[in-house]
């Protein structure tokens, strides 16, 4: 396995873990949708998954994660504008 492949695998695993952490936190009411940390976890998680899925030419999954990240960026920007 090359260094690039290892980096891509790490990005994918870290991305998956971050998205799952965000899901766990919101599902257990430890965070809510108005908290920036929830959206940052989703943004960085989606970016990691985008890297992995694009490298592996899994374009439908990449598409979903681009939208996922876009929604998180949009929501985060609305939260930050209100402050």
Describe the overall structure.
With 83 residues, the protein is an all-alpha fold. Helices cover 83% and strands 0% of the residues. It has one domain. It has three helices and no strands. It is elongated and about 45 Å long. The N and C termini lie far apart (46 Å). The mean pLDDT is 98. The chain crosses the membrane at residues 6-25, 37-55, 61-80. It comes from Cytophaga hutchinsonii (strain ATCC 33406 / DSM 1761 / CIP 103989 / NBRC 15051 / NCIMB 9469 / D465). Keywords: Membrane, Transmembrane, Transmembrane helix.
Give a short overview.
This is CBU-0592-like domain-containing protein. This protein is mainly alpha-helical and 83 residues long.
Write the layout of secondary structure elements.
Blueprint: H1 3-27, H2 36-55, H3 59-82
Keywords: Membrane, Transmembrane, Transmembrane helix
Domain CBU-0592-like: 9-83
Pfam families: CBU_0592
The residue fraction in helices comes out at: over 70%
Number of helices: 3
Low-confidence stretches: none
Indicate how many domains the architecture comprises. 1
The pLDDT mean sits at 98
- Strand percentage lies at under 5%
- Give the topology string: H per helix, E per strand: HHH
Report the principal-axis shape: elongated
- How far the N terminus sits from the C terminus, by CA atoms, comes to 46 Å
Structural class by sheet pairing and helices = mainly alpha
Transmembrane segments: 6-25, 37-55, 61-80
Protein name: CBU-0592-like domain-containing protein
Keywords: Membrane, Transmembrane, Transmembrane helix
Domain CBU-0592-like: 9-83
Structural key phrases:
single chain, 83 residues, mainly alpha, transmembrane, CBU-0592-like domain-containing protein, membrane, transmembrane helix
């Amino acid at each position: 396995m090359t260094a690039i492949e290892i980096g891509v695998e790490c990005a994918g695993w870290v991305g998956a873990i971050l998205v799952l952490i965000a899901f766990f936190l919101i599902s257990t009411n430890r965070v809510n949708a108005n908290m920036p940390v929830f959206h940052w976890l989703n943004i960085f998680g989606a970016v990691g998954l985008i890297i992995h899925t694009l490298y592996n030419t899994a374009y439908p999954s990449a598409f979903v994660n681009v939208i996922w990240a876009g929604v998180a960026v949009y929501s985060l920007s609305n939260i930050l504008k209100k402050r």
